[in-house]
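> run fold LacI family DNA-binding transcriptional regulator
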Amino acid sequence: MAKLADVAALAGVSVTTVSRVINNYGSLSEKTKQKVFTAMQELNYQPNSLARSLQGKKTQLIGLIFPGVSNPFFGELVQTLESQLFQKGYRVMLCNSLGDAQKERSYVRMLLANQVDGIIAGAHNLTIPEYQEIKAPLISFDRDLGETIPIVSSDNYTGARLATGALLETGAQDIWLLTGANDPGNPTNERLRGYQTVLAENHLAPTIVELPFAMAAEVKWTTIQQKLSQHVPEGIFATDDMTAIMTIQIAHSLGIKIPEQLRVIGYDGTALIRNYYPDLATIVQPITAISALLIELLLKRIQDPQIQLEDRYVLPVKRYAAKSLLGN
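> ok
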């Protein structure tokens, strides 16, 4: 059986470096990581701490790959996943990729090196080939990662229809959509489609402002500020709550009255936002139910890798009306 020292010798690095690569610790070049991973593969090396997996036993480890927990939605979802998995006897390894393909690639390799029992991914990098090669059970949240990888999401299309329809009900007709990058195949594109469909049904023209998820807050602020300085619409549907809150703050700085001149509705509806910013109207995603379904499907795949699962699972959303939409 190969040892850590064997991997180090084949890769031409120190034992300490191999350990750091396996645990994704410290700053290492991609070239060094690749040499270590290649050596591990050639030697069929398994980390000693997880040697029991060679005996057909589970590690009770689940990998979570998400853009970043600083975003309230992903933070609450990850916390819920961790809590529910812990109750089922699993520990988690959390990987924050934040739109960095290289970082995400490194995390995928780290999780595989540590022989996690399964992975739940809500990553934003759709082109990395590792997802197609992963042998461990994998379930996706809101992202198309491959034909064989089931997707769990909220009802993005209906949510967008509810949000856009709510703005129309207040009398708004000039309605903007503030959205992230709409990559082909992503379930979140359904928010764009829902918005466009409602406007088309009412013979209204869409205005779409793309603000990629990884865009720096300062750049996003400046972009929205410039748009509102040039023209104030009657309504704005932001496809995430943080952008909706930023829009309201910018409007206040420009002397635009909410909701008298501009009505705003967001999307996500985390407990944090509803508790600390209750004036924001939003579409509420069922985070507890999403988490439970992601775990249920993953555990089914862990227990039976050949089990047939649906391509997509869609959970209902609900509208939360508040001051930014309806006023006092």
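Residues 156-285+318-326 form a domain with the Rossmann fold fold (CATH 3.40.50.2300).
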